[in-house]
Design a protein that fits this description.
The structure holds 2 protein chains of 2 kinds. Chain A has helices at 2-9, 16-26, 28-45, 47-50, 67-70, 74-99, 102-130, 140-145, 188-224, 226-241, 244-254, 259-269, 272-286, 289-296, 301-313, 315-338, 349-355, 365-393, 395-400; strands spanning 57-60, 63-65, 149-153. By secondary structure, chain A is an all-alpha fold. In chain A, strands 2-1-3 form a 3-stranded antiparallel β-sheet. Chain B starts with a helix and ends in a 6-residue tail after the last strand. The chains are: A mainly alpha, B alpha/beta.
Chain lengths: 401, 330
């Protein structure tokens, strides 16, 4: 038995995922986009360490203090936890590909995902409940200037996103403020870095919600067909005919302006595309012999839909997903630009764009250019990533190249 | 000879699958309101019995309803009318939950080995999933069992972790057979299992099917459009034409003394090294639509006369176990 398994271990085949990954990494543009997004994520996760007006360490009256670490909020810790779990999951997937028998891989992976999401959910709840909200309005820079404190270690961008300073408002890029300041004297680079969090999390959570709804809806419509499909498609057409953007504006007007509400609203209004893709794929797969075989073996519906059909029909959805992330970032930017987005002082790229033209009569180019470029590059990177993924998945293109 | 005797005895008392007047019609819908304007009678009034442990061959040209009949019996396509008894139980009207237990006993080997295996699953998990779902085996016992199954169908246990795209057509068909046998079914529906393979592989797979039948005491419903393949493996052969069985007989009898003109036409199409039979002068193309009144074979029949267009010939028994649906046999 044991020798049997050892012998088997040498003969692991290449999975479809590995083939796609191989194909995906062949293209240099894909790698560049992937690294761009990974770096963006790193910036978003470690934003308080990169741009903060609290020093890492400071000596006041001979005692050492660590104000930056003390003022981290529950949200910061939640972001760290989420990033940590995600990184752990990526490492686990890589480990699985090397260590775990492909035969058991899917069940092992499912267990790992359940465990990680449980840790994440429980952790976030605990953090939100138990981490106290600390306000530290001490101006450490003036303390150093007045000689009360010494040997402070500040982050690279030593400004807080919420700190205003009318004396330096509307400054062009200078040595102190690399990307200039806005009309209330906040540092643009600092707000740009903290705004990354909003834009990326909006993209991911909104698309996560919409793809779950879309996939389940489309799978049921495509598998059952007939009356279910007819009713589902009419409901979907109603959803599609509603002007999403104005619906979001209306809903945002009723509910408090919070990032979470915006994510949910974008999520539950943009699932129609995914649903249509999945439905079309499932129609095609429904009559494939391997699905018929699964039915004839008496497998439960859950297994047929999500184990046999979905992995074979996920490709267009995956591509649509990356475009969806770009779209969600756009919607959030537009909402924030119009003043319906996240409430200040929380920064977001769209909101920063709007400050470039609103209050003062003149056009402050650095307030528009840098957030605009950030949105442009992020959306482009996601779109290119989506296209690269589509090319890697599509076997017809693979043969042609 | 002895085995044939035994099988003949079994025929009388022990039929594992009994199909009665099975009909599968597909509605033709037209117009804005999708009104049903007619039916495609893919399977029309088909009846037969399969004794346990034997092989029942179903032949006919493409479009004659063989595959539809098989899939209707396996409850993959809803039937219009008729009954299918599996071990005395009517399975066409069973509720989904009870059906699952029956499905364990009826499995299918599909025609196209390229589309019948899930490309995203390893061979091991393809075979393992039914075992898990039906609580037959777990853990290392399951791996042993899968290894045993793969070895039985002529693959090696080391293939467990390979993906279907790494195999040739013949090997894939073997995987399909292993999956079909995983649940230890009582009856296996072979839906043209060899027609997508090249000739040398065909004979290997047919021999494998025959060996497995002896080992596991399987019953086959064997569908093919190639009469020589069916001759090799079947005990009884039924010939289908446009949804109807036109002739049914024990295999040797059918090949020696075909009664129906369509069977004769089919037999003449088998390539022989010495063409001793002269080709009957019949049209070889299928008519585009069958008239509902007369004999469905009318347009191509070399022996038809005026009477044939008036009624559909019923299946009549001409000698024990040998029936044909033709008026011109007397």
């Amino acid at each position: 038995m044991n020798t049997n398994i050892k012998k088997i271990k040498k003969e692991w085949g290449t999975s479809y995922g590995q083939l796609v990954w191989h194909q995906f990494t062949k293209n240099a543009a894909n790698i560049v986009c992937m690294w761009f997004i990974i770096i963006l994520f790193t910036i978003a996760v470690f934003a308080p360490f990169i741009a903060n007006d609290k020093p890492f360490m400071i000596r006041i009256d001979g005692n050492s203090y660590f104000p930056l670490f003390e003022t981290l909020t529950a949200n910061d810790y939640s972001v760290f936890l989420a990033a940590g779990t995600f990184a752990a999951l990526v490492l686990l997937v890589r480990r699985n590909a090397k260590k775990v028998d492909p035969f058991l891989r899917s069940s092992v992976l499912a267990k790992q995902i359940y465990l990680c999401s449980a840790i994440l959910v429980i952790g976030i709840i605990l953090l939100q409940v138990f981490v106290p909200r600390k306000l530290d309005a001490t101006d450490y820079k003036s303390m150093i200037a007045s000689g009360n404190a010494s040997s402070a270690v500040f982050p690279i961008v030593p400004y807080g996103y919420a700190r205003t300073d009318i004396k330096v408002s509307q400054q062009k890029p200078t040595k102190e403020h690399w990307l200039g300041t806005d009309d209330v004297g906040s540092d643009v680079l600092c707000r740009l870095i903290h705004g990354t969090r909003v834009s990326l999390s909006v993209g991911f959570v909104a698309v996560g919600i919409s793809s779950v709804i879309g996939i389940i809806f489309g799978a049921v419509m495509g598998y059952f067909g007939g009356k279910v499909d007819f009713l589902g498609m009419r409901l979907l057409e109603i959803m599609m005919s509603v002007p999403t953007f104005f619906l979001i504006i209306t809903i945002v007007a009723f509910f408090p302006r919070s990032l979470f509400n915006i994510m949910i609203i974008i999520g539950i209004t943009s699932w129609t595309g995914d649903a249509r893709f999945v439905r079309a794929e499932f129609f095609k797969l429904r009559n494939q012999d391997f699905v018929q075989a699964a039915i004839s073996l008496g497998l439960p519906l859950r297994s047929i839909l999500f184990r046999h059909m979905l992995p074979n029909g996920i490709a267009p959805v995956l591509v649509n997903l990356t475009f969806g992330i770009a779209g969600a970032i756009f919607i959030e930017s537009a909402l924030s630009f119009l003043g319906f987005g996240v409430a200040p002082p929380t920064p977001s790229w769209g909101q920063m764009l709007s400050t470039g033209v609103s209050t003062s009569g003149q056009f402050l180019w650095w307030l528009t250019l840098f957030p605009g470029l950030a949105i442009f590059f992020t959306v482009t990177a996601y779109n290119l990533l989506g296209e690269g993924l589509r090319d890697a998945i599509d076997p017809k293109l693979r043969k042609a190249v | 000879m002895h085995r044939d005797m035994k099988r003949n005895n079994m025929t009388e008392n022990n039929s594992i699958l009994k199909v009665e007047n099975l009909k599968t019609w597909f509605p033709i819908k037209k117009g804005l309101l999708r009104r049903t304007v007619g039916f495609v009678r893919a399977v029309d009034d088909v009846s037969f019995e399969i004794p346990a442990g034997s092989t029942f061959g179903l032949v006919g040209e493409s479009g004659s309803g063989k595959t539809t009949a098989a899939r209707t019996i396996a409850r993959l396509i809803p039937s219009t009318d008729g009954k299918v008894y599996f071990e005395g139980k009517d399975i066409l009207h069973l509720h989904q939950s009870k059906l699952r237990k029956i499905r364990k006993n009826i499995s299918i080997v599909f025609q196209d080995p390229y589309s019948s295996l899930n490309p995203r699953m390893t061979v091991g998990s393809i075979v393992a999933e039914p075992l898990k779902i039906h609580n037959i085996a777990k853990g290392s016992e399951m791996i042993d069992r899968i290894a045993m199954l793969l070895e039985k169908v002529g693959l090696s246990a080391s293939h467990i972790n390979r993906y279907p795209h790494e195999f040739s057509g013949g090997q894939r068909q073997r995987i399909g057979i292993a999956r079909a046998l995983a649940l230890e079914p009582k009856i296996v529906i072979c839906d043209e299992p060899v027609s997508a393979l090249d000739v040398s592989i065909q004979s290997q797979i047919l021999n494998l099917l025959k060996d497995l039948q002896e080992q596991f005491n399987l019953t086959y419903l064997f569908i093919a459009h190639d009469l020589s393949v069916v001759e090799f493996i079947s005990n009884t052969v039924a010939v289908m034409y446009l949804g109807k069985i036109v002739e049914i007989a024990p295999a040797p009898v059918l090949y020696e003394k075909p009664l129906h003109p369509y069977t004769k036409l089919l037999l003449s199409a088998i390539p022989r090294p010495v063409p001793e039979r002269k080709k009957p002068s019949a049209q070889t193309e299928a008519p585009s639509s069958a008239s509902p009144q007369g004999c469905p074979f009318l347009g191509r029949c070399p022996v038809s006369d005026g009477f044939c267009c008036k009624a559909i010939p019923p299946l009549q028994e001409f000698e024990p176990g040998h029936s044909a649906a033709c008026f011109k046999m007397h």
